[in-house]
Structures are given as structure tokens and as C-alpha cells.
Specification:
By secondary structure, the chain is of the alpha+beta class. About 45% of the residues lie in helices and about 15% in strands. It folds into 6 domains: about 90 residues, 3-Layer(aba) Sandwich (GIY-YIG endonuclease); about 100 residues, no CATH class; about 45 residues; about 120 residues, Nucleotidyltransferase, domain 5 (2-Layer Sandwich); about 180 residues, Nucleotidyltransferase, domain 5 (2-Layer Sandwich), CATH 3.30.420.340; about 55 residues, 5' to 3' exonuclease, C-terminal subdomain (DNA polymerase, domain 1, Orthogonal Bundle), CATH 1.10.150.
Length: about 600
């Protein structure tokens, strides 16, 4: 059984789909989430649950997740997986062959909006089809919030003598008791129709003008309301590229971190994602990505007859394969149709590849922090370093700065079960020559271990220093100054061009050593070192940006006052810009694709 506590601790906050797996790997339940971490964590909280959920939890042995770009894509993927696998705990979901629509009853003086399945009728406007009834309900719910259109049936409408609850919660304007004129209600209906017809720019332009006018009048509450309406409209307006009209392909996403590799295979049939799977191949030393992908494609498709039968016409990868033509010919001969291995640069296929890569990164993080894997790597580390016992507490230190500006030191703590994040610490480094990493390391170690001695806190039995012999000498000097003994000190010097797998380890008074690139001990050291680096650089960026006291947009080259104003106006504020996708940013007038990439990178510099 998976260690769910560690699994949840390192799960992504991205939207996506999760699959609950049983004892034999069978899919018990498929669900979608706007925030995977929050949604999956709710299953294991102490809150009261219904009998169905309690029964599901008893049978869960593993959880598989697939990251998507938006919640809407997660809904589409969830629908595809449920139709394909029919999990036992999803039997209550409807599986109609017909697609749902949104209808507006134009023949009534006060038209209503509702969902609909079946044959079309006259004098009714239909919008769709939508991929699922849930997508229809969510769209209607958003339109209610924005345009406050009634959803009640005519018999209920005609019998009302006072407004219902929807009026009280601002989801309806109360036309049943004449709380809105017919002209104003028609205006709302026309706005909703324009939006559903894809002419939302007219509605958004009007809301933007109202937002600016309210801001000028210092009515910030009303301006915030218009800003939220703009954001909601853009959520529905955003194009869905997971579900397209055609296309059969397998998408190969790859992630590498701390010496480990994960390959994520997304299977797309008829333009829809029908499933995904993570692979963790054993990779020999000095293998490049081209070799890894070629070996995976060959072994995956040609080792099993069932895989041969499922070879698609297109295989999408993130790298150019040197033996691409040969591989295409071999696969085509096996399956009797043309096969292309392509590396997309833009368009739908590029977005599929991005999704597969994100899922691979998440799977790799989950694999890293699995308790059993961590204990195995800790045992290997004990053997590689010749320690008398397994390290029960490991501390790693790193320094981060920009040309000496805003220097921050980090300390991360691991044990045999993984990171102890409550013990992480950051240190502001002061009164040293800018850029002097050795002095910075001496200062952080001195402050850290003086504090440990004062608080009588437990000492680590292994300290990793990000750096070579000079940083290690600074650590030895601190240990002598504080009269601390019995701690193994290891300096981790980066290899040529900072390439993982070529690190040099400086251990005490011993000669430097090099561990094999596939060593579990080296993987553990790389994981801890990378975590210290991540923790340091996040703190450094926060300190640097605060010191500069500038808008996040001002720090991006190519963004002047006019473009900054256009971005804030388009998205309704800095939060809207921060949460916008790359495609949404590129839609803003005056923002090129390359500039949109820089803006997106500035707000999304954290790894999965």
C-alpha cells in the first residue's frame, strides 16, 4: 500500500484527474479536481463521510494522478476515463449517448436558461453540445452569477408571489414578481446569448469600461465585482484543446531530476485523452534523452502483441530522435499503417506534450518522496559513505544570490522517511563581501549550530554542503570553533556544466570520490541538494523583489506603462495576470508570443 501521508504532502495544486486503484490495480474511482492536493486530501481528513466514500477508502491501495491545464480539461478527461473503465464507484454517473445542450426559451416574455438532452424543438435557442452534463451545469451556474437569469420552469414561475432563494443569493433578478423590467431582463438575456455564441468580447469590453468607471469614482467594491465577472467570463471563454474533433496519438513526456527519470505516456484517441501511465526505466550512466526515448518506444511497442495493435499513427515526443526514420519504418511494418514520430513546436500537439511533461514531473516528485524509496536510498547512502549507522537526521545548506544581491542561505532537513519541512530554515546573510559564498556558508553554519547548542536541539549526524573543498573547510572551521564532534561533513561539488551524475563528493579528510550516476546514494544526495537549492532560491527571489519594491510586471523586460495598463485592464488586476495561461496572455493586444512566454515564466517560476 502506498504511503498516503507522504503522497499527499508532495502532491501538486494543479487541476487534474485522479484514479483510485484497488488491490489488483483495478480502477475503483475516477474523479476530477481543480486542486488535486486539496481534493485528494479531503478523502483522508477526519471529517464525516458518507458510506460510499468510507467504502471506497477501505479499498484504495494506490492513487494515480494526471495533471491538466484547466479544470474544464479535467472534466473532459474524467468523462473519457469513466466511459472507458466504468469504475465500480462511478456507477451513479449518467452515461447517455446523447450530448447535453444549454437552451434558452425565447418564446417566454422572461426566458429561462436550462440544460437539455434530446431532439430539438422550435422557438428555442440551443447552445452546445457540451462534453458532459457537469460542464453544462457549471456553465449555467457561472451565467447565473454573471447575468442573473432565471432557471425555474414556467409552472413554478407563474405560481410565485414572492422571490425565491435564488434572488436572495443574487443568482436571479426576480422577474417572477416584477423586480426587474422586461427591457432590463432582455438586456441580460442578450448578453448571455452573445457570450454563448462566442461574441463575448462585446460583453467583456462593456464590463471593462464599467470597471474602469467604478474605479475612477472610487467605488472599489463595484470595480472588484466587475473584475470577478470578467475573470468568470474568461474561464468559460478559454478554448478547450483536450477535446478536439480528431487525432490518434501517443504523447511521450519526460522528466529528469536528481538522477531519476520518469516517462509519462498519454494515449489520445479520436482527439480525447483516454488514459495515462508513468514509467520509471533503469537508465545506464551517460545515456542521453535521445537514447532513452528510442529505447522506450522500441520496448514498449514491440515487446507485446497487444501494444503492436495499439500503435497510433502519430507518436509525439519532446526531442528529435536520431533514428526516427528507421523507427517509423519498423513500427509501420508491424501495424500496417503509416507511423510518424514528431516533435511539435506549437499548436494542439505541443499542448498535449506540455501536459504529459507536467504529469511526468508530478509522478517523479511522488516517486521521490515515497517512504519506501527514501529508506532504500538512505541505506545506500550509509553504505556509500561508510557510516556506522543509517543517518537519522541529514541537514543540507545552500547559498543563493544574484551577483551578491539579496544573499539567502537555506537549511533543509531530511530523515529516513523524507523531508522534515517544519525544521526548514532560511537565513539572511549580512556583513560579508557580496558574492563570497565561503563567508556566507561560514556565517549560516555558525548561526545555525550556535542556536542548536543554545536550544539543546538534536544534532544531525550528516551535513551536506552545496560546494567544494572551500565550503567544506568553512564547515570544518565552524565545527572546531563550537567544539562539535561526531558529525560527518560532505561537500557536494557540481559536475562539468552542472550536469547531474557527475558530482564530486568531498568527505572529511578523505580524497574526493565520484559515485556512479545510477547510484541510489547519489540520487538521495542530489534530491536533498536540489531541495536545498529550491528553498534557497525561493527565499532569495522574495527578498530581492521586496527590496526593489516594484510591480512584478515592471521586472519583466518589454513591459512598459502602456502594456502594463493593457494587461491589468484585460485581466482585471495583477491576480488575473498571474493566473492567466500562456494562450490567454498571447491574446492581449500588443503582447507577442515571446513576450507572453516571459510574462508567464515570471509568474510561474516554481517547479511542480
Amino acid at each position: 500500500m502506498r504511503d498516503f501521508k507522504n503522497f499527499l504532502a508532495h502532491l501538486s495544486h494543479h487541476p487534474g484527474v485522479y484514479q483510485m486503484l484497488g488491490e489488483k490495480g483495478e480502477i475503483l474511482y475516477v474523479g476530477k479536481a481543480k486542486d488535486l492536493k486539496k481534493r485528494i486530501s479531503s478523502y483522508f481528513s477526519s471529517r464525516t463521510k458518507d458510506p460510499k466514500t468510507l467504502s471506497l477508502i477501505k479499498h484504495i491501495k494506490d492513487i494515480d494522478v494526471t495533471i491538466t491545464h484547466t479544470e474544464t480539461e479535467a472534466v473532459l478527461l474524467e468523462c473519457n476515463l469513466i466511459k472507458k473503465h466504468r469504475p465500480r464507484y462511478n456507477v451513479l454517473l449518467r452515461d447517455d449517448k446523447s450530448y447535453p445542450y444549454i437552451l434558452i426559451t425565447k418564446q417566454h416574455p422572461y426566458p429561462r436558461i436550462d440544460s437539455y438532452r434530446g431532439s430539438r424543438k422550435k422557438n428555442i435557442l440551443y447552445f452546445g453540445p457540451y462534453p458532459s452534463s457537469l460542464a453544462v451545469r457549471e456553465t449555467i451556474n457561472l451565467l447565473q452569477k454573471i447575468f442573473r437569469i432565471r432557471t425555474c420552469h414556467d409552472s413554478y414561475f407563474d405560481a410565485r408571489t414572492r422571490p425565491c432563494l435564488l434572488y436572495q443569493i443574487n443568482r436571479c433578478t426576480g422577474p417572477c414578481v416584477n423586480l426587474i423590467s422586461k427591457e432590463d431582463y432582455t438586456h441580460n438575456i442578450n448578453h448571455a446569448i452573445l457570450f454563448l455564441e462566442g461574441k463575448s468580447h462585446q460583453v467583456i469590453d462593456e464590463l471593462q469600461n464599467k470597471m474602469e468607471q467604478a474605479a475612477k469614482e472610487l467605488n472599489y467594491e463595484l470595480a472588484a465585482l466587475y473584475r470577478d465577472q470578467i475573470n468568470r467570463l474568461r474561464q468559460i471563454q478559454d478554448r478547450q484543446y483536450v477535446n478536439v474533433s480528431k487525432g490518434n496519438a501517443d504523447v511521450i513526456g519526460l522528466a529528469m531530476q536528481s538522477g531519476m527519470i520518469c516517462i509519462q505516456l498519454l494515449s489520445i484517441r479520436s482527439g480525447q485523452i483516454i488514459g495515462s501511465r508513468s514509467y520509471f526505466p533503469t537508465v545506464p550512466a551517460y545515456s542521453d534523452i535521445d537514447e532513452i526515448i528510442s529505447a522506450f518506444l522500441t520496448q514498449h511497442y514491440l515487446s507485446d502483441i497487444s501494444h503492436i495493435e495499439s500503435i497510433p499513427r502519430q507518436i509525439i515526443t519532446g526531442t528529435n530522435i536520431s533514428e526516427r526514420i528507421l523507427l517509423e519504418r519498423v513500427l509501420a511494418e508491424q501495424v500496417n499503417h503509416k507511423v510518424e514520430v514528431i516533435m511539435p513546436i506549437r499548436g494542439e500537439k505541443k499542448k498535449w506534450l506540455t501536459m504529459a511533461t507536467l504529469s511526468a514531473r508530478q509522478a517523479l516528485v511522488t516517486h521521490f518522496f515515497n517512504r519506501a524509496n527514501t529508506q532504500e536510498r538512505a541505506c545506500a547512502l550509509q553504505s556509500a559513505l561508510g557510516l556506522s549507522q543509517m543517518p537519522h537526521r541529514i541537514e543540507c545548506f545552500d547559498i543563493s544570490h544574484s551577483m551578491g544581491e539579496a544573499t539567502i542561505a537555506s537549511c533543509v532537513v531530511f530523515d529516513q522517511n523524507g523531508p522534515i519541512k517544519s525544521d526548514y530554515r532560511r537565513f539572511n546573510i549580512q556583513n560579508i563581501k557580496p558574492g563570497d559564498d565561503v563567508a556566507a556558508m561560514h556565517q549560516v553554519l555558525l548561526r545555525r549550530f550556535k542556536r542548536i547548542q543554545m536550544d539543546h536541539a538534536p544534532l544531525p549526524n550528516l551535513i551536506l554542503i552545496d560546494g567544494g573543498s572551500s565550503q567544506l573547510s568553512a564547515a570544518k572551521a565552524v565545527m572546531r570553533e563550537l567544539n562539535i564532534q561526531g558529525i560527518t561533513l560532505v561537500g557536494v561539488a557540481k559536475g562539468p556544466e552542472r550536469k547531474p551524475g557527475f558530482e564530486t563528493l568531498h568527505i572529511g579528510e578523505q580524497l574526493p570520490i565520484h559515485l556512479p550516476s545510477d547510484s541510489l546514494a547519489l540520487h538521495f544526495i542530489q534530491q536533498i541538494r536540489d531541495e536545498a537549492h529550491r528553498f534557497a532560491i525561493v527565499g532569495h527571489r522574495q527578498k530581492r523583489d521586496k527590496a526593489r519594491r516594484q510591480s512584478s510586471l515592471e521586472l519583466i523586460s518589454g513591459i512598459g506603462a502602456k502594456r502594463r495598463r493593457d494587461l491589468l485592464r484585460y485581466f482585471g488586476g495583477i491576480q488575473g495576470v498571474a493566473h492567466a495561461s500562456l494562450d490567454e496572455l498571447a491574446k492581449v493586444p500588443g503582447i507577442s508570443h515571446s513576450l507572453a512566454e516571459r510574462i508567464f515564466a515570471a509568474f510561474h517560476d516554481a517547479t511542480v
